[in-house]
Amino acid sequence: MSSLTVDHWEWSAWKFLSAGGALELNVPPTHQVRKGSETIIPCTVTVYKPPVDPSLLLIFWIFQGEEILSYDDTVTTSDDRVSINTTRVIDGDASLSISNVTVTDSGVYTCVILYSLEIMEKSVSLSVYAPPNITITERIAFINKESVLRSSIIGFYPMDIDVKWFRDGKTVNNYSVSTPQRNHDGTYSVYSTLIIIPTKKDRNNIFSCKIQHASLPRPRQKDFQLDYIVGSLELIVPPTHQARMRSVTRIPCKFSVDTPTADPRYLKIFWNFQGEQILSYDGTLTKTDDRFSIDTTKVVDGDVSLQIFNVSLNDSGVYTCLVLYNRKMKEKETSLFVYAPPKITITGRIAVVNKESILCSLITGYYPVDIEIKWFRDGEILNYYRLFKPQRNTDGTYSVYSTVTIKPTEQVRNEVFSCKIQHASLSRPRQKDFELEYIDDKDEESDYTIRWGVAVTVCTMLLKFVYEKCQKSFMKSNHSTKTNLYLKTVFQAEAKVGAASSYSPTQNTNIIHQRKGSYTFRGKLQLP
């Protein structure tokens, strides 16, 4: 009461001379409140002649010996968080309100009432509590190796707390609890550790950390299972993989761990192409191209194979499968080879008895460029054929022409001719068999027209290809006078004999030689 000033007493002496009567004060001995909440500490006064006359009333609240609030028609406080309801004073209610209660608000509060010539006071002990929160901060275990489980119990008040550990409901004693640490808000935190040596039998065990605290009506418990660290992580990826152009393919990538299935919480998958990430999965699938995907339903079983839809030649290259699981990482590379099998079309099969005729085949849509072509007559190889330089198509595949010059006789009208090709995309050679379509040659002019007409058709198609290449090269050049393309075309009838068997880009094919009885295309060709 030393904080009450002399002025208060002098003022009350003359103010209350004519007043009097019995006074009764009601204050509970203790009061509890949760940290962070708002509370009202009760204090009510009963007068002899109700209602209370506010002009005869003085109210004081003292905390730990210091005045924090006074009322004499107006309220004065030392803390904005404390107040009284002035509208209820006439009813004798002098209860103290405290908002946003903190731990430092704990202590003894005294309610002092001066009414008329009487004075009364009573004290109440305020207990602030803060319930603890449990977090399991470490649950990773190694089979048959010493492992440490940790829990964090934070934000509690008062300081005293009881911590226990259980395994499937049975007490485990090999644990320790740290000394409580004071937090900046006045609450406390402790840490507890449990040392175990788990076996495979413990995979399904339920571990528990249980705490008892004055703020809790009953014990609080946190249950959990162990997260086992992978002892081994194996990744299976073939070194190479082949896919047909425009197909759907799966580049295999499978991993295995020492558990029946992988825990998706600790699993991350990455696929890279030529060093750039194209897909990732950590519970959410992210990809740079809608044509890429993985079957997320198979991930926990170890299958993270990459699916590619509508495969193109641009998909050829090196892919990397990377798996992260717990604290293990594995990655492996595989090379994807995209192929396109060739198609054979016989475009020229017209023959004239006893006259040289040109047979023509068109091989289209194949990749890679290397290809081998052979001609046969009734199973016997023909050495007099010609192979033109392959043409690159807009989709990246190739097409090529091959011709053979023959001189059929009347006796061999039923002979079967064949064009056979061998290519990297084929498991075995592909062959096109056909018979000649004979036209009787009763007129030399008719023979000339037919024979040369077929040849001109073939050469025109070749010339168109060369012209398009020239045009592209010219457009790419900065100066038309410095173009790298030099072209001379000479069409003439010759009688040369030779043999061509296959095309490879490593061979010198700038000059295409003439076979017996057909036109010749000759020139120096430098393509960009």
UniProtKB/TrEMBL annotation:
Coiled coil: none annotated. It comes from the Eukaryota. Gene3D superfamilies: Immunoglobulins (2.60.40.10). Residues 33-127, 132-225, 247-337, 342-435 form the Ig-like domain. The keyword Transferase does not apply. This is Signal-regulatory beta-1-like. Keywords: Disulfide bond, Glycoprotein. Pfam families: C1-set, V-set.
